[in-house]
Specification:
The protein is α/β, with parallel strands linked by helices. It contains 14 helices and 13 strands. α11 packs parallel to α12. It catalyses: Random hydrolysis of (1->4)-beta-D-mannosidic linkages in mannans, galactomannans and glucomannans. Residues 47-385 form the Glycoside hydrolase family domain.
Length: 440
């Protein structure tokens, strides 16, 4: 009754609709620009990560990475209902001593698309990426930002080819034309330039000038199976890595490789998981040795590559796989090697929870031993970390780390071990100084 009387009174004075209109305007401002009132000014002193030979350095000290993948950060930041998950993930990871997150800086042509069509961007989604970077900075976390997907998820090269086909300029409908079609190359270069020169609305810093970004990754898991010789992909990597460096010489750059050895490699038959791995159009050494590529990337998924090995056999292979690439980093590439994805599926027929911890421990132990010996194995990234109530985004590799005590312990132990080798980073002091002391 009170509400009804108040409405009649306001309406009678001609104030009802102006007040409702003003309230709607305020609501619009909040939904559109609400983050502008969020305090991103917490003073975090981040320096650019540099590379000298086979090691990364920060402020003159060697830097080893205990990292993770949460590819979904920008997508979730684009919706205010899911945006709080970004802070939850980054804060929890910082408390575990994690230092770098690998995530997508692309979403082409789908829901919450950053790039709606070639050269056309959704400002709302760009602000979501701004938010991710600003929030990472607040928590002392650096980011590896991947620029396109070889796979179809979130658009990828398939979407670029579709755009060119719809515009009538495509040379072919093959997904691999992404790598050689001149029109598509122009699409991608325009995208890269737009992202690298973006000025973050929250920090005021252009992406190419922001040390929060650890590195750029050209493409997630590139393959060009229509040219198993590797020449097509190699040409694309040379052109695009040179283009990135022409815009941004402050940040490190990697390709985004899985680590397979190509048909010209002497390791193709002794280190690859199976024969098919040499025919994917990629080559770990040739693709990584370019002067415009600062470090190499490798993925570790033995249960995805093999279907007739038991867990013990896969574990043994994964260890040899890692050591082979660290050897390459030391002897051939003279660059750091990051294992930017590794995981064990819980959908395997013989899966037991203890197997995942054993696999994770093996990977972390290889990195720790490499760090102790000043070798090129410079870090690893779990695939993938989620927060609560994200089952829809789980791909059978997902972990909510603080819900798994044994896994949580493995992660934090690795943070402490690496801190003991390199010393505490300024961003880790708050969380690890007392946390690690009882373990040393």
């Amino acid at each position: 009754m009170v509400k009804s009387s108040m409405s009649r009174m306001l309406a009678g004075n001609g104030l009802f609709y102006p007040i409702i209109g003003f309230a709607s305007f305020i609501a619009f401002l909040y939904l559109s620009f609400g983050d502008l009132w969020v305090n991103y000014s917490k003073e975090i002193n981040l320096s650019f990560v540099e590379r000298n030979g086979t090691q990364f350095y920060v402020d003159g000290k060697v830097f080893y990475v205990n990292g993770w993948n949460s590819y979904w950060l920008m997508d979730h930041a684009a919706d205010y209902s899911t945006r709080p998950r970004i802070r939850t993930m980054l804060q929890a990871s910082a408390k575990m001593g994690l230092t770098v997150c690998r995530t997508w800086a692309f979403n082409d042509g789908g829901y919450n698309a950053l790039q709606i069509s070639p050269g056309k961007f959704d400002e709302k989604v760009f602000r979501a990426l701004d938010h991710v970077i600003a929030e990472a900075r607040r928590n002392g976390i650096r980011l590896i930002l991947s620029l396109v997907n070889n796979l179809q998820a979130y658009g990828g090269k398939t979407q670029y080819v579709k755009w060119a086909w719809e515009e009538g300029v495509a040379l072919s409908s093959s997904n691999d034309s992404f790598f050689y079609d001149p029109s598509i190359r122009r699409y991608f270069k325009n995208y890269v330039k737009t992202v690298l020169t973006r000025r973050n609305i929250y920090t005021g810093i252009e992406y190419r000038d922001d040390p929060t970004i650890f590195a750029w990754e050209l493409i997630n898991e590139p393959r060009c199976m229509t040219d198993p010789s590797g020449d097509t992909l190699q040409d694309w990597i040379e052109e695009m890595s040179t283009f990135v460096k022409s815009i941004d010489r402050k940040h490190l750059l990697t390709v985004g490789l899985e680590g397979f050895y190509g048909p010209k490699s002497p390791k193709k038959s002794i280190a690859n998981p199976e024969v098919w791995a040499a025919d994917l159009g990629s080559d770990f050494i040739c693709n990584s040795i370019l002067s415009t590529v600062d470090f190499a990337s490798v993925h570790v998924y033995p249960d995805h590559w093999f279907h007739h090995k038991n867990f013990e056999e896969m574990l043994k292979f994964a260890a040899k796989w890692m050591l082979s690439h660290i050897e390459d980093g030391d002897r051939e590439l003279k660059k750091p090697v990051l294992f930017t994805e590794f995981g064990l599926s819980n959908d395997n027929e013989d899966f037991e929870p203890a197997q995942r911890d054993r696999f994770l421990k093996m990977v972390l132990d290889v990195i720790y031993k490499s760090a102790k010996r000043n070798r090129s194995g410079a870090g690893s990234f779990f695939w993938q970390f989620l927060v609560e109530r994200m089952e829809r985004f789980n791909d059978e590799y997902g972990i909510v780390p603080w819900e798994n005590p044994s896994t949580y312990r493995l992660i934090t132990d690795q943070s402490c071990r690496l801190a003991k080798v390199q010393g505490l980073l300024s961003t880790q002091v708050e969380h690890l100084k007392n946390f690690c002391a009882p373990r040393n």
